[in-house]
Design a protein that fits this description.
FAD/NAD(P)-binding domain, seven-stranded mixed β-sheet, alpha/beta, single chain, six-stranded antiparallel β-sheet, 13 helices
Length: 460
């Protein structure tokens, strides 16, 4: 029996950042490639996440800048934020970026098939009324906000809806303690919206270094956000004039507007994974090996749908690496052991490497260096915002294992230092690097004495 030649060498399901990167790299390597997308081209990061979120952060940051400007000699008239005007500009920018992504696919000779894709067996995918066969399939469908984490929360706004608001709410309750929750709570407060942040843990930003978690809570409170640790609602109910929250202790509270920021979930429903023998894990993610291969021959997955490190640059790197594995001269796995990340609250956070808690749980002797100060701009303007920094250093090798920072420009500074950590920089390398003065970043090369040491004896 002669096996029919497949239509394509590669079909990518999902035209977000990771899927587009994988498809373009595979086409560059000579593969016949198509990409399927059931929504807009560009994915969450470009259209509903990172990009519009940071544009809103810039708008919120302007409130701080306007306040500081008076101290720097500017005579400022009363300013007012117009959410509808911002939303119009945001929509124009995301539409422009979508066209950029479409053009990149066309220029790479990747066919765009618009429609929802579903696997119908090995190498066979239905996209709308069309059936496509492909030697290899990459699933890059990303994730979406969880809408069933709390009884009754399904109709509450998520980050998707917040970024499309035409008018700011009179008051807001944000449920969740992760980066999306603290980012939007921070921004709404800058726009003058009274905000309550309700989360389960003692501090927000679980998984981040304790210095950053404590500082984030302090900065949110200083911005006027009412923090309620352990105060996540047990259930919520939609009312004509807003939402009724029922707390774990039975108390009921009313809020005019509710933001559900309780997490995201991989988009695996309706993909037909059962037709190729793939079973998702308890988080609804597709299990993969280090190279992105699933248990099904010829089917692979990258990015948030695998629920490993859910960041856009990771999805892009995984997509390109997988394309190299499938169609290039050799394969490589993306190193996920030291991935830098940022939280775009105000002030922002940058972080790369393990937390102090994680290192303290090992028997590895560690030196901890810290700095905390009021930046020059804040000090001159009479502001209270502080910058906090931490270096974690392996005592035996002197290698810098982690950099954590909260303060103005933290993501930009940590991105640069991530190169040094990836190259294996030691504390001695930091020490002999001359400072750029006056900057906040110079503090990272001026830390001379450790704030404390974590030793095997102390841990035990």
């Amino acid at each position: 029996m002669i096996t029919p030649t497949p239509d394509l060498d590669l079909l990518v399901i999902g035209a977000g950042s990771g899927g587009v990167a994988a498809s373009r790299r595979a086409a560059l390597l000579g593969a016949r490639v198509a990409i399927a997308e059931g929504r807009r081209v560009g994915g969450t990061c470009v259209l509903r996440g990172c990009v519009p979120k940071k544009l809103l952060m810039y708008a919120a940051e302007a409130a701080d800048d306007l306040e500081a400007a008076r101290a720097f000699g500017w005579d400022m008239a009363d300013a007012r934020f117009d959410m509808a005007r911002w939303a119009t500009a945001k929509a124009a920018e995301t539409s422009r970026l979508e066209q950029v992504y479409r053009r990149m696919l066309a220029d790479a000779h990747v066919e765009l098939i618009e429609g929802r894709a579903r696997l119908e067996g090995p190498g066979r995918v239905r996209i709308g009324d069309r059936v496509v066969t492909a030697r290899e399939v990459i699933i890059a469908t990303g994730s979406s906000p969880v809408r069933d984490s709390i009884p009754g929360v399904a109709d509450a706004a998520t980050s998707d809806e917040l970024l499309d608001l035409q008018r700011l709410p009179a008051q807001a309750t944000v449920v969740g303690g992760g980066y999306i929750a603290v980012e939007f709570a921070s921004m709404l407060a800058r726009f003058g919206v009274p905000v309550e942040l309700r989360y389960r843990d003692r501090l927000p930003l679980r998984g981040f270094d304790p210095l950053l978690r404590t500082a984030a809570a302090e900065e949110l409170a200083a911005a006027g956000v009412a923090l309620h640790p352990g105060g996540a609602p047990a259930s919520v109910q939609r009312k004509p004039d807003g939402w009724m929250l029922t707390l774990a202790d039975g108390r009921s509270l009313h809020t005019p507007w509710l933001l559900n920021a309780t997490g995201r979930r991989p988009n695996t429903v309706g993909l037909g994974l059962d037709t190729v023998g793939i079973t998702v894990d308890t988080s609804h993610a597709i299990p993969v090996d280090a190279h992105g291969h699933t248990a099904a021959p010829g089917v692979h997955a990258i990015g948030d749908v695998t629920n490993r490190v859910n960041l856009t640059p990771v999805a892009i790197a995984e997509g390109r690496a997988l394309a190299d594995t499938l169609f290039g001269a050799g394969g490589r796995a993306v190193d996920l052991s030291r991935v830098a990340s940022a939280v775009f609250m105000l002030p922002p956070i940058g972080s790369v490497g393990p937390t102090e808690d994680l290192l303290a749980s090992s028997d590895r002797p560690i030196r901890v260096y810290e700095a905390a100060f009021r930046p020059m701009k804040q000090a001159f303007a009479g502001g209270t915002q502080r910058t906090r920094m931490k270096l974690l250093v392996d005592d035996a090798s002197d290698q810098v294992l982690a950099v954590h920072m909260i303060g103005a420009d933290a993501p930009e500074i940590v991105q640069s230092l991530a190169v040094a950590l990836t190259a294996g920089a030691t504390k001695a390398d930091f020490d002999r690097t001359l400072a750029v003065h006056p900057t906040a970043a110079e503090e990272f090369v001026l830390m001379r004495e450790p704030a404390r040491r974590l030793t095997a004896a102390a841990v035990s």
